[in-house]
Amino acid sequence: MTLFSPRLAARLDALVEKYPLRRSALVPMLLYAQDEIGYISDAAVAEVAQRIGITELDVRNVATYYSMLRFKPAGKYNVQVCTNISCMLRGGYEVYERFQQELGIGHKGVTPDGLFSLEEVECIGACCWAPAIQVNYDFHDELKPDLVPGILDGYRGKALAEGKAPHA
Amino acid sequence: MPRLVSHPDEVKIVTSRFGMGAANIERYIELGGYASAKKCLEQGPDWIINEMKASNLRGRGGAGFPAGMKWSFVPKQSAKPKYVLVNGDESEPGTCKDHLIFLHDPHAVIEGTIIAGLAIGAKVGFIYLRGEYRYLLEIMEKAVADAYARGFLGKNIFGSDTEFQVITQTGAGAYEVGEESALMESLEGKRGVPRIKPPFPAVVGLYGGPTVINNAETIATVPHVIEMGAAAYAAVGSERNGGTRLFSISGHVERPGVYELPMGYNLKKMIYEVAGGIRGGRKLKAVVPGGSSTPVLLPEEIDIGMDFDQVGKAGSMLGSGGVVVIDDQTCIVEFALRTISFYQHESCGWCIPCREGTDWIKKSLTRFHAGFGEAKDIDNIQYLAENMMGRTFCPLGDAAAMPTLGFVKKFRKEFEDHLNGKPCPFAKHVDLAVV
């Protein structure tokens, strides 16, 4: 029995064989699990522990270290706004404020429809194209506050299109 | 897609294939790719290490340790398997060069990893990318699969009887993991806390085996060193600083971007000519020359060559090559606060001076910037930072303390101007407490 889709389960089966030691699969496994189910649930911790062959406590001990791993659901699109120095100098906070206004939520908030969540994050490695954000894993760079509504509309459209797709 | 920039003063070696479709293996081969690895396979480890030493290539992660020397420390005989570990955890604020390397030239990273493996006698190399770089990890994974399909990786690389495997790995968000021993811990599926040294990774590293750890830019440079020849590569740079460097120029300049310039290139020229000067015709206030952990330089201190030795002499560090340019409309107290907030967030908590020091400096600066500072706070911030220096297992404590000391010492007047309820003349974002 697995929590995950057959495709992810197969990927995780392969992942533990990839390294000289099984345990090296732990961090990627948690991240890939989160990508599919939205967060690291208790059931996910249990399954990952069993797959690696370590205790649940050990899994939690490692998982809580990494800032991308979360223990409650985020929005379908998690907006991560960098406000670190290079982004700050070019208006990162103004972009972050605009996201707060448009979404009506603050740091680590989730919109009531579950579509968006917002996070102020540390440097994402796009300093020369600042200010920059990530929505899930997609980068958007050289932003201005006025570009914020368009970005959000783009993801709303994407969600709508996926909702209508026959094999969503 | 991150914008590529260009300037006539650039010497494009590592970036020579950027924007040319070299993520495609056919294209990479057409552009001369994998010839260096084949040559190294014929020449053998001693030749490779001598070339690397002669090239004066120094570690691009920040410490600037000579790469050839590092490789020579790995014992020839080892009971345990040896490993190469490529550090692509790029997360020093102000630095985004590896981002472009993974995007435009992933095979250069693979080829460099093979060469490092041949040099030290390793059969396995790991390429570790920060978790946020998922789209780049996918590019790397495709490149690795293509290299296997071509027989450039595997049991018999390039048809020889030499084996070399490459394994990619993703992080999941942690600045600290960019430190080499924390990186190994993370790759072993643990919390990314540092290890005590010695033993050094060249002796006891990943899974207990001798390990060479190099920054992604260093590794991507290796095939070019072999191709050009060590002497030609060394001749591009300055004394004891071979070749070029990918400078990530960000902040208040007209043309921010990643520029490849010879080591020793003048910082003032870099800002005013290469990056087009200060945005909107404003005046320069300060420069962070090598990523957020390096001490700030004043406008009168930037007429220096950008190599490890010259920036060191000027009282700062070349670091990761992340040049952050700050104009005269910026509050240095706020900048210092945002910098320490980052280190407070990223401190792994293993060493008390770092865990407590970053937290107390952040608290003091938050209060100070909000207008509730007292005169003694300035000395107290300096005292806290001084007591973090050199008192932690890994360099994160120093990385947090050094910039703080620079800001307090060089901009003391601006700190004093914030005293006695005087509002910050530049204040925009007073509430930084959420970070």
Topology of this structure?
The complex is a heterodimer of chains A (168) and B (435).
Chain A: H1 6-15, H2 26-37, H3 42-52, H4 56-63, E1 77-82, H5 85-89, H6 92-103, E2 116-121, E3 133-135, E4 138-140, H7 148-164
Parallel strand pairs in A: 1-2
Antiparallel strand pairs in A: 1-3, 3-4
Helix pairs in contact in A: 2-3, 3-4
Chain B: H1 25-30, H2 35-43, H3 45-55, H4 67-72, E1 83-88, H5 97-104, H6 106-120, E2 124-129, H7 134-149, E3 165-170, H8 180-187, E4 211-215, H9 216-228, H10 230-236, E5 244-251, E6 257-262, E7 265-266, H11 267-274, E8 284-288, E9 305-306, H12 308-313, E10 322-327, H13 332-346, H14 352-372, H15 375-388, H16 396-410, H17 412-417
Parallel strand pairs in B: 1-2, 1-4, 2-3, 5-10
Antiparallel strand pairs in B: 5-6, 7-9, 8-10
Helix pairs in contact in B: 2-6, 2-9, 3-6, 3-10, 5-6, 6-9, 9-10, 13-14, 13-16, 14-15, 14-16, 15-16
Which tags fit this structure?
heterodimer; A: 168 residues; alpha+beta; Glutaredoxin; 2 domains; four-stranded mixed sheet; 11% strand; B: 435 residues; alpha/beta; Rossmann fold; Ubiquitin-like (UB roll); de novo design (two linked rop proteins); 3 domains; four-stranded parallel sheet; 17 helices; 10 strands; 12% strand
Concise synopsis of the structure shown:
The complex is a heterodimer of chains A (168) and B (435). Chain A is of the alpha+beta class and 168 residues long.
Rg from alpha-carbon coordinates of chain B: 22 Å
Give the class of chain B from helix and strand content and strand pairing: alpha/beta
Q: Mean pLDDT across all residues of chain A, rounded?
A: 96
From the N-terminal CA to the C-terminal CA of chain B, the straight-line distance is 27 Å
Number of structural units classed as domains of chain B? 3
- For the biggest β-sheet of chain B, the strand order reads 3-2-1-4
CATH architecture of the largest domain in chain A: 3-Layer(aba) Sandwich
Q: What is the succession of H and E elements of chain A?
A: HHHHEHHEEEH
Radius of gyration of chain A: 18 Å
**Total helical elements of chain B:** 17
| Broad shape of chain A | globular
How many strand segments of chain B? 10
